[in-house]
């Protein structure tokens, strides 16, 4: 037998062997896929049976909001309660449920907290489903691969929510996009989402690519070429999964132009996406008088925001320190100056962060001029804003900035970060007049604070008037009208 014939014979034998191995493998794959499909269908049938039994018992459909931190007291929680209030006022024949992980309080205490913090009272009660495994979405549980860990954790938390209660319409109001396919394909629910902030964005990718240190890109990664390259690949793959999950949503609402741009690039569903600016309690601050502040002996700088790392309170304290140093050298006015940090703490991690910020104040020698106001009631928040001259905001790429709007409604001179929602939607000219100031680092913040304090009081007063008039477009009434208009197609699908 020639060498050519031997080669042909070997190839034939190899092909025959591969075919013998391939057939069982294909059969096994088909069997596994069939079992998986049957399992999914069985679970879906079981969940929908539960929903049908509940519908027969209640006699009306149910809309559920997934908001594991509904008692946190931040801007996202204000959106939740305003949304439920608007829907309850419009649809009297529909029940409402909130999935929450706040186990230490009762439903009544949560509603009382909403009234105390946001001045919001619901026209009728809602049912709370308390989730026992909120720890699965805590960032502290995942020191590395946090985005992936929290997203996988949200799937398990969403599964707990779905098995506890199967709604007719599911709304993710806190940004857990990976729960959307779970409720749509397993629960058979219509699904919608209100996106405050994309879990990942092109800006985050650019920060890693350019190897810039940030709170979510520590020095040991930004200084290492291999780790930076690995993180870029990780972010790109995660962005792909995030886009696939988000695209399952029947309705997508975003809170700002900045968020809209990122969600359109990731979820690619322009026909289902609209901007619904979050509700800001503009009217509650309009009774704060707009008076000339030229005779003040102490100017207060107030910051409104939860004590989360991305809010960058460290930047506020360091910039404030630079302002004080300049004033000591004679480069500023003689009025006393203080910084008031007002915000909520969601958990022990936030409380530990406050302790670190207090330590930073001690280290910089400004502890006697910085005040911390934690989880304060609405009236105290309003009092602090009424006494302030400047409203301060330092979060890079803030999705919207409810605290910024509230400061402007209260008639404060706003100094916000030169990015995200504040730059694109809020601190923009109004009828040709300036409404505030923008900065992006310690030096520019210190310079702008000095500039604001150096303005003639009459100029500050006119700027404050412009700011107050410009934020009427972010009122509760505007939110309710836009939110109800966006929700109407989904609400119309509910069987009464």
Automatic annotation (TrEMBL):
GO terms for molecular function: GDP-Man:Man(3)GlcNAc(2)-PP-Dol alpha-1,2-mannosyltransferase activity. The keyword Membrane applies. Residues 301-469 form the Glycosyl transferase family domain. The chain crosses the membrane at residues 21-47, 224-245. It is a single-pass membrane protein. It catalyses: an alpha-D-Man-(1->3)-[alpha-D-Man-(1->6)]-beta-D-Man-(1->4)-beta-D-GlcNAc-(1->4)-alpha-D-GlcNAc-diphospho-di-trans,poly-cis-dolichol + 2 GDP-alpha-D-mannose = an alpha-D-Man-(1->2)-alpha-D-Man-(1->2)-alpha-D-Man-(1->3)-[alpha-D-Man-(1->6)]-beta-D-Man-(1->4)-beta-D-GlcNAc-(1->4)-alpha-D-GlcNAc-diphospho-di-trans,poly-cis-dolichol + 2 GDP + 2 H(+). Keywords: Endoplasmic reticulum, Glycosyltransferase, Membrane, Transferase, Transmembrane, Transmembrane helix. GO terms for biological process: protein N-linked glycosylation. The keyword Methyltransferase does not apply. It is found in: Endoplasmic reticulum membrane. It comes from the Eukaryota. Its EC number is 2.4.1.131. Residues 62-267 form the ALG11 mannosyltransferase N-terminal domain. Its main location: endoplasmic reticulum. GO terms for cellular component: endoplasmic reticulum membrane. Pathway: Protein modification; protein glycosylation. Belongs to the glycosyltransferase group 1 family. Glycosyltransferase 4 subfamily. GDP-Man:Man(3)GlcNAc(2)-PP-Dol alpha-1,2-mannosyltransferase that operates in the biosynthetic pathway of dolichol-linked oligosaccharides, the glycan precursors employed in protein asparagine (N)-glycosylation. The assembly of dolichol-linked oligosaccharides begins on the cytosolic side of the endoplasmic reticulum membrane and finishes in its lumen. The sequential addition of sugars to dolichol pyrophosphate produces dolichol-linked oligosaccharides containing fourteen sugars, including two GlcNAcs, nine mannoses and three glucoses. This is GDP-Man:Man(3)GlcNAc(2)-PP-Dol alpha-1,2-mannosyltransferase. It comes from Seriola lalandi dorsalis. The lineage of its organism: Eukaryota, Metazoa, Chordata, Craniata, Vertebrata.
């Amino acid at each position: 037998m020639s060498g050519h014939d031997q080669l042909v014979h070997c190839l034939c034998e190899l092909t025959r062997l591969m075919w013998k191995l391939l057939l069982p493998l294909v059969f096994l794959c088909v069997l596994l896929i069939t079992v998986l499909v049957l399992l999914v269908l069985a679970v879906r049938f079981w969940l929908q049976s539960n929903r049908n039994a509940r519908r027969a018992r209640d006699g009306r459909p149910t809309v559920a909001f997934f908001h594991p931190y509904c008692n946190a007291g931040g801007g996202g929680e204000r959106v939740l309660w305003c949304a439920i209030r608007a829907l309850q006022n419009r649809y009297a024949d529909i029940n409402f449920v909130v999935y929450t992980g706040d186990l230490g309080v009762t439903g009544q205490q949560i509603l009382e907290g909403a009234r105390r913090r946001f001045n919001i009272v619901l026209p009728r009660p809602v049912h709370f489903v308390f989730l026992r495994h909120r720890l699965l979405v805590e960032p502290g549980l995942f020191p590395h691969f946090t985005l992936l860990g929290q997203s996988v954790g949200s799937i398990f938390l969403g599964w707990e929510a779905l098995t506890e209660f199967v709604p007719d319409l599911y709304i993710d109001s806190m940004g857990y996009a990976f729960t959307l396919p779970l409720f749509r394909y397993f629960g058979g629910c219509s699904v919608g989402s209100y996106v405050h902030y994309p879990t990942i964005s092109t800006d985050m990718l650019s920060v890693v690519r350019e190897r810039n240190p940030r709170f979510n890109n520590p020095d040991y990664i930004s200084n290492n070429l291999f780790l930076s390259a690995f993180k870029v690949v990780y972010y790109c793959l995660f962005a792909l999964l995030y886009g696939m999950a988000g695209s399952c949503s029947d309705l997508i609402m975003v809170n700002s132009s900045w968020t809209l741009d990122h969600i359109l690039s990731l979820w690619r569903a322009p026909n289902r996406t609209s901007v619904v600016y979050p509700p800001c309690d503009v009217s509650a601050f309009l009774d704060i008088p707009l008076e000339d502040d030229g005779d003040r002996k102490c100017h207060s700088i107030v910051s409104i925001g939860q004590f989360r790392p991305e809010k960058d309170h460290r930047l506020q304290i360091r910039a404030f320190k630079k302002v004080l140093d300049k004033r000591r050298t004679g480069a500023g006015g003689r009025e006393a100056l203080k910084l008031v940090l007002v915000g909520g703490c969601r958990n022990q991690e936030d409380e530990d962060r406050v302790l670190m910020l207090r330590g930073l104040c001690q280290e910089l020698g400004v502890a006697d001029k910085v005040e911390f106001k934690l989880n304060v009631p609405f009236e105290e928040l309003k009092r602090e804003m009424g006494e302030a001259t400047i409203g301060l905001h330092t979060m890079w790429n803030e999705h919207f900035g409810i605290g910024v709007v509230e400061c402007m409604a209260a008639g404060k001179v706003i100094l916000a970060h030169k990015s995200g929602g504040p730059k694109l939607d809020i601190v923009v000219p109004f009828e040709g007049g300036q409404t505030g100031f923008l900065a992006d680092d310690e030096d520019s913040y210190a310079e702008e604070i000095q500039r604001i304090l150096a303005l003639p009081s009459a100029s500050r007063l006119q700027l404050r008037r412009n700011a107050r008039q410009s934020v009427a477009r972010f009122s509760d009434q505007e939110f309710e009208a836009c939110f109800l208009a966006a929700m109407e197609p989904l609400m119309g699908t509910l069987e009464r």
